[in-house]
């Protein structure tokens, strides 16, 4: 029996990276999935790949998570295609790293519009249906930046701290209706964004090696390792996990100093 058989899920930012890995893992476990993505061309390519790999029902839809109407439309189309949504994964996010005193107002707003407001827009769109049915699982992709601070990364960790607060508050608010809200906090994960950051450094190979040396396991995580944690939280195997955050970072955040 597949772990998500019969379930319908919407994943934001699912065109590539962690979001795409989650969508593929969900489809392999029997879910119908909607890829809600700003870059619709990438999302459609990913959707075709997932269909070919799994035979699952998959849709890609242009979605701007900063716009509540766009998210509501994605939820509506997902429900028309697949029926009631059992799972929402708020994965869409952007890196905004600035010096606090030279950061512009636009930088601040751009970070929070995607990384916090976007999560709330997703939650607000699916919660009425989940509450009415008395079942549902919302998974918010946070970050180890939600509880650890790296200088030079402001205001990204502020938004991610907010994601944890939102997760806990909604999880408690709707626990009596059997709607669970949890978060996953990835550390360094091998995505395109990670490679782009390395490539921007003066010596990309040295930057990559320095990152690996910081990790207790001497490697960084893979998107599918985050995805399988999402599968667990979305499944019926985690019925008493709520208002919690699972860290997926190979132990890095437990390390006191280098």
Describe the protein's architecture and organization.
By secondary structure, this protein is of the alpha/beta class. The chain has one domain (8-190, 221-250): NAD(P)-binding Rossmann-like Domain (Rossmann fold). Helices cover 47% and strands 16% of the residues. The protein has nine helices and nine strands. It has helices at residues 17-28, 40-54, 68-82, 105-115, 117-133, 156-174, 192-199, 204-214, 223-234, and strands spanning 8-12, 32-37, 58-62, 87-90, 97-98, 136-141, 154-155, 179-186, 245-248. It has a seven-stranded parallel beta sheet with strand order 3-2-1-4-6-8-9, with helices on both faces. Helix 1 runs parallel beside helix 2 (40-54) and helix 7 crosses helix 8 (204-214). It is globular.
Offer a concise description of the structure.
This protein has 258 residues and is an alpha/beta fold. It contains nine helices and nine strands.
């Amino acid at each position: 029996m597949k772990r998500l058989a019969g379930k319908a899920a919407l994943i934001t930012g699912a065109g590539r990276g962690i979001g795409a890995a989650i969508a593929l893992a969900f489809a392999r476990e029997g879910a119908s999935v909607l890829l809600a993505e700003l870059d619709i061309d990438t999302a459609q390519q990913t959707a075709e790949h997932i269909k070919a790999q799994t035979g699952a029902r998959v849709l890609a839809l242009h979605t701007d998570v900063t716009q509540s109407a766009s998210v509501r439309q994605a939820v509506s189309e997902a429900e028309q295609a697949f029926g009631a949504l059992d799972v929402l994964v708020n994965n869409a996010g952007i890196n905004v790293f600035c010096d606090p005193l030279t950061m512009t107002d636009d930088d601040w707003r751009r970070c929070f519009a995607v990384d916090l407001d976007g999560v709330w827009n997703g939650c607000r769109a699916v919660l009425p249906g989940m509450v009415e049915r008395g079942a549902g699982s919302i998974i918010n992709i946070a970050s180890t930046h939600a509880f650890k601070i790296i200088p030079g990364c402001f205001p990204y960790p502020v938004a991610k701290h907010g994601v944890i607060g939102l997760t806990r508050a909604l999880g408690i608010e709707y626990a009596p209706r059997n709607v669970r809200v949890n978060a996953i906090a990835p550390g360094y994960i091998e995505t395109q964004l990670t490679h782009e950051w390395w490539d921007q450094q003066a010596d990309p190979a040295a930057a990559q090696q320095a990152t690996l040396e910081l990790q207790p396991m001497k490697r960084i995580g893979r998107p599918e390792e985050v995805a399988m944690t999402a599968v667990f939280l979305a499944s019926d195997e985690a019925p008493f996990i709520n208002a919690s955050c699972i860290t997926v970072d190979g132990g890095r955040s437990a390390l006191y100093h280098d």
